[in-house]
Amino acid sequence: METVKKEPARVGPEYHDIVLALLQYEHRCTEKISAKIALLSPENLTRRFPIGHGTLHASLYHLVAVTEKWTDRSRPDPTDVIGKTYPGPGKITVAELRRRYRTAADQMLKNLAALNATNPKLRDDLWLIKRNHLVHITTHGMHHRAQMINMLKQIGVRNLIEGGDFGGWANRPLKNRRIKPNRISKIDQL
């Protein structure tokens, strides 16, 4: 009996654009939230909350560590980054966490570019898994940014971004184009 090889799912170029947009949104939001966290006193960095990883510092560390792990997994040739135990605020600064995130963010974009450059005939299940790792980073980031936004609000930090309004962020440039007024209300309903 002959085994039939299942054809892997194909994803068109229009979908790659959404992955890129999600990654760009992820980077923007994480940069803005981590900038607010960088301004906090040591007491507020380690203030305990009954959500997330308990403190802003531990939550940011978790977001960065998971981003590094899944960014590595989405590389053409992963290096097998191993997650480390949270060292505590005295062992790693917010500035270092922000630097590590920016490094991972740059790598995410390189990984997506490499995936997009793959010949469509060679895009197998592993290709899809690597792309999905990048999407996972964005959903994971939104989840933990929401927790950090909640913590920051409880501390009294103002002028916070939404951190989870991808549709509003992604659609703003489209809505700013010359669209007839009667079409804007239809677009808002989408």
Class from helix and strand fractions: mainly alpha
Q: So, the CATH homologous superfamily? A: dinb family like domain
Number of strands: 0
Secondary-structure element series: HHHHHHH
Task: Tell me the span between the first and last alpha carbons.
Answer: 49 Å
> For the record, what CATH class applies?
Mainly Alpha
- Uncertain segments are 4-16
- C-alpha Rg (nearest Å): 19 Å
> What is the strand content?
under 5%
Helix coverage percent of residues?
55-70%
When the domains are counted, the total is 1
Q: Outline, from the CA principal axes?
A: globular
Supply the number of helical segments. Answer: 7
Largest sheet: none
CATH architecture: Up-down Bundle
pLDDT averaged residue by residue: 83
Under CATH, the topology is which?
Four Helix Bundle (Hemerythrin (Met), subunit A)
Describe this structure in words.
It is globular and about 55 Å long. The model is unreliable at 4-16 (pLDDT under 50). The chain has one domain (13-163): dinb family like domain (Four Helix Bundle (Hemerythrin (Met), subunit A)), CATH 1.20.120. 64% of the residues lie in helices and 0% in strands. Helix 1 (13-38) runs parallel beside helix 5 (125-155), helix 3 packs parallel to helix 4 and helix 3 (56-73) packs antiparallel against helix 5. With 190 residues, it is mainly α. It has seven helices and no strands.
Strand and helix layout:
Blueprint: H1 13-38, H2 42-45, H3 56-73, H4 94-117, H5 125-155, H6 166-175, H7 181-188
Helix pairs in contact: 1-4, 1-5, 3-4, 3-5
